[in-house]
Amino acid sequence: MATDVKPMMRIERIQALTDGVFAIVLTILVLSFEVPEHRFGHDNLLDFFRELAHPFMAYVVSFGIIAAYWVQHTAIFHYVAFGDRTFVWLNILFLLPLTLLPFLTDLRATYHDEYITTLLYAGVNITSGVILLAMWRYGMRRGMMVQIASAVDQSMRHRILLGLAINALGAAAALINPYLSSIVFLFLPVIYLSHRTVDSHWGTDEGDATSTVTD
C-alpha cells in the first residue's frame, strides 16, 4: 500500500548524475586498449590481434552489461515521480559497483584463466542488480511511482532477478571455460533487448504517485 511521502528531490537531478557516471564508465572501459608504440610486421600484427581476443571479449561483455543496466535504470525511472533521501542514496550505491567494472574488466582480460577474477566480476554485477531491485521495491512501497499495473511490477522484478541468475551462472561457467562464462554473461544484455510487458504499458501507466499498483 502506498504511503504519504513528501518529495525531497526531483528525479532530474538523480538521472543527470546517473547518466554522467554511465558515460564516464563506458569511456574508461575502452581506454584499457593500448596501441603499441613500435610498428609490427604483418605476422607480428596478426599475433597482436590474437592476443587481443580475451581483452576484446571482456570489453564487449562489459559494454553490453553496462548498457543493459542503463536500459533497466531508464525503464525504472520512467515510473518514478520523485525520490526521498533513502532512494537517492540507493541510486548512489547502485553506481558504486558500476564504477568498478572498467577495472574488473581489465583484470578479467589479463587474468582470464583465473576463476577468482570472474567470480569478482560476477559478484559486482550481482551487487548492482540487488541494489537496482531494492530501488524498485523501495519506490513501490513508499509510493514514489506513478500508477503501475501489477503485471509491470511483477515483470520488472522478474527481469532483474533473471539478470542475477545469469551472472551467477556466468561465474559457475568460468569453472569450465573462460569463453563460456563470457557467452553466458552476454545473455544479460540480450534479455533487455525487449521487455514486452513493460513496453506494452509504456505511456499508459502514468498518473499520480498516490496509487502505486493497479490490476
List the defining traits of the structure above.
2 strands; 70% helix; 2% strand; 215 residues; single chain
What fraction strand?
Answer: under 5%
In total, how many domains does the architecture comprise? 1
Q: State the secondary-structure class.
A: mainly alpha
Largest sheet: 2 strands, parallel
So how many helices? Answer: 9
Can you characterise this structure?
It contains 9 helices and 2 strands. The chain has a two-stranded parallel sheet. With 215 residues, the chain is mainly α. The protein has one domain. Helix 1 (11-30) packs antiparallel against helix 3. Helix content is 70%, strand content 2%.
Q: What is the topology?
A:
Blueprint: H1 11-30, H2 42-51, H3 53-77, H4 85-110, H5 115-141, E1 148-149, H6 150-173, H7 178-185, H8 187-191, H9 196-200, E2 213-214
Task: Give me a quick take on this structure.
The chain has helices at 11-30, 42-51, 53-77, 85-110, 115-141, 150-173, 178-185, 187-191, 196-200, and strands spanning 148-149, 213-214.
